[in-house]
């Protein structure tokens, strides 16, 4: 093993430099910025004024923000279990050989390739009240509720979930499929001989075997649920009356609509805290189970 | 015979799923070729009596999609090129050398995988403005020039190269850059391809960051262009027109995907190596 003095540092420098400028520095910036009051559209607050934890207190006392947290919570808690269960089910369905399998896999996977904004415009048309295919299909199934999904206060959030589900289920299925294909067959066979079948087989035998993939899929599903709000821009704009605003969209609104920099920094801090708490606990869980 | 029946049920079920999954995009595709003069009416929503390219022509005249393509192309190309260079240099250092603080530096870089750059759009917006790069293609691309994922992925594949091979090359008078070029990079081809494809699909589809960092068509990429198009006053509920615009933005990458399907899937899966 040769020892180098300078060369390795020079090689690492470019990557490190970009990470420092666009990840570390911003992290410090929002931590400090969240303690100051600064609003670009109010002369008095053009320049930052120290506010302590006041911005956080304001946020958690603001019904609008609590609504955003509730929306984000529902969105994540409905979307992620739905995605995981259906993706796993689909992986089982397209695993074994069958005529036309490539076509079936493509049908499930193709939305992954589309930009989220394209998926959203396609669905905006699909969800049209009246002659839209979504509503026509629901009518055939006997649905008589409101038709304007995107504009209905209690349905808007679910129309977003629907689009995100359609867009991402194939992507997650892919990882489950890889897990199933790489799984130790002899264990499954042994369990089958011991009488394991159906749901018991899945939860007791197969899921532990593909635990690594499951953990990974959960992580990416969670992170992408937080960092993708593209469909909001096309479908609901967070409305009606804030009923479908998600955290990142709120962040965008606060910063670029209301020009409230202090509050935007505080929201960023909250969002990063949630993401880190999730990834770290996920990581610790996987370490513990590894032993 | 029981397994035959099970296969048939599975086949039927998959047909239903394929139908449901394809319907939204198929309907939009059909709508994009509908003559604008034939309104959507109940019972007649799928097929118009004739096909027309009028929606495509109108969409192209209303927004500079060609320009958006060029912008997206440069933005994504710059990011991929930069990540290949910075990523392979850093990965080479971490895989080939031991140096004081190497673990710390690696951990710092990995932090970028835990905090998505999308969450940091507010401070990064200020940085890009400060650098005078607002509303430029370099401004969109710059924050992604250093990639933890690229470093991590390439390091993994560099680590599979026996140390002796590098050492022997060094004894024979091989410089570090020759080692990297002739020994390390050629063995990491599949990781490099995976990196290119996953960066391509991620940045080609990225929307929020390009949206906030651009304000004119000189830098605006396809995704932001499409959303702007949907919000134009004169578009309204002209679904054929809107669908045509969506297809203009979506179809080319989709065709690329169909051609390179296997490689794409491998690229996606390699992002799962942890």
Any overview of this molecule?
- The complex is a heterodimer of chains A (291) and B (274).
- Chain A has 291 residues and is an all-alpha fold.
- Helix content of chain A is 71%, strand content 1%.
- In chain A, strands 1-2 form a two-stranded antiparallel ribbon.
- Chain A is globular.
- The two termini of chain A are 32 Å apart.
- Chain B has 274 residues and is an all-alpha fold.
- Chain B has a domain of 148 residues: MetI-like (MetI-like fold, Orthogonal Bundle), CATH 1.10.3720.
- The chains are: A mainly alpha (291), B mainly alpha (274).
- At the A-B interface, helix 1, helix 4, helix 5, helix 7 and helix 10 of A face helix 1, helix 3, helix 4, helix 5 and helix 7 of B.
Give a short synopsis of this structure:
Chain A has 291 residues and is mainly alpha-helical. Chain A contains 13 helices and 2 strands; from the N terminus they run αββαααααααααααα.
CATH first level of the domain at 71-218 in chain B: Mainly Alpha
* Estimated helix fraction of chain B: over 70%
Helix-and-strand structural type of chain A: mainly alpha
What characteristic shape of chain A results from the CA principal axes?
A: globular
Assembly category = heterodimer
Describe the sheet with the most strands of chain B: none
Instruction: Provide a count of the helices of chain B.
Output: 14
């Amino acid at each position: 093993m040769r020892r180098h003095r300078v060369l390795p540092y020079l090689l690492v420098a470019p990557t490190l430099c970009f990470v420092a400028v666009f990840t570390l520095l911003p992290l410090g910036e929002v931590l400090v910025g969240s303690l100051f009051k600064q609003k670009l559209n109010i002369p008095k607050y053009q320049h930052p004024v120290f506010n302590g934890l006041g911005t956080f207190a304001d946020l958690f006392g603001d019904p609008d923000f609590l609504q955003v947290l509730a929306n984000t919570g529902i969105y994540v808690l409905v979307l992620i279990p739905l995605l995981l269960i259906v993706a796993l089910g689909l992986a089982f369905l397209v695993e074994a050989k069958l005529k036309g399998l490539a076509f079936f896999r493509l049908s499930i996977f193709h939305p992954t390739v589309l930009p989220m904004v394209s998926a959203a415009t396609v669905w905006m048309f699909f969800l049209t009240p009246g002659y839209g295919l979504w509503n026509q299909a629901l009518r055939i199934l006997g649905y008589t509720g409101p038709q304007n999904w995107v504009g209905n206060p209690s349905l808007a959030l679910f129309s977003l979930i629907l689009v995100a589900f359609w867009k991402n289920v194939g992507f997650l299925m892919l990882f489950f499929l890889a897990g199933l294909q790489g799984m130790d067959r002899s264990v499954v066979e042994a369990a089958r001989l011991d009488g394991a079948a159906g749901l018991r087989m899945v939860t007791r035998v197969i899921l532990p075997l593909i635990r690594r993939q499951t953990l990974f899929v959960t992580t990416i599903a969670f992170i992408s649920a937080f960092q993708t709000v593209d469909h909001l821009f096309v479908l609901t704009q967070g409305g009606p009356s804030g009923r479908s605003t998600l955290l990142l969209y709120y962040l965008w609104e606060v910063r670029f609509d209301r020009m409230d920099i202090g509050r935007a920094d505080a929201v960023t801090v909250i969002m990063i805290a949630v993401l880190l708490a999730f990834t770290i606990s996920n990581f610790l869980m996987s370490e513990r189970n590894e032993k | 015979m029981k397994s035959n029946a099970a296969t048939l049920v599975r086949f039927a079920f998959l047909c239903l799923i394929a139908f449901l999954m394809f319907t939204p995009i198929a309907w939009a595709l059909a709508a994009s070729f509908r003559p604008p003069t034939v309104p959507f009416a109940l019972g007649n929503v799928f097929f118009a009596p004739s096909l027309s390219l009028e929606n495509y022509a109108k969409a192209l005249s209303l927004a500079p999609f060609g320009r958006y393509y060029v912008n997206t192309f440069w933005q994504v190309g710059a990011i991929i090129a930069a990540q290949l260079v910075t990523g392979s240099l850093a990965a080479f250092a971490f895989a080939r050398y031991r140096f004081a603080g190497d673990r710390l530096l690696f951990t710092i870089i990995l932090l970028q995988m835990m905090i998505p750059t999308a969450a940091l759009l507010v401070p990064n917006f200020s940085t890009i403005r400060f650098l005078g790069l607002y509303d430029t293609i370099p401004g969109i691309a710059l924050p992604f020039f250093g990639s933890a994922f690229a470093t991590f992925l390439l390091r993994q594949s560099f680590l599979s190269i026996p140390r002796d091979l590098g050492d022997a090359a060094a004894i024979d008078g091989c410089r570090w850059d020759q080692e990297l070029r002739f020994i390390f990079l050629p063995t990491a081809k599949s990781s490099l391809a995976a990196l290119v494809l996953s960066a391509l699909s991620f940045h080609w589809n990225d929307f929020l960051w390009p949206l906030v960092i651009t304000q004119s068509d000189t830098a605006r990429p396809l995704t932001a262009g499409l959303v702007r198009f949907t919000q134009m006053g004169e578009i309204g509920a002209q679904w054929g027109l809107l669908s045509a615009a969506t297809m203009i933005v979506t179809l080319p990458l989709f065709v690329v995907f169909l051609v390179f399907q296997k490689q794409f899937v491998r690229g996606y899966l390699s992002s799962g190596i942890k």
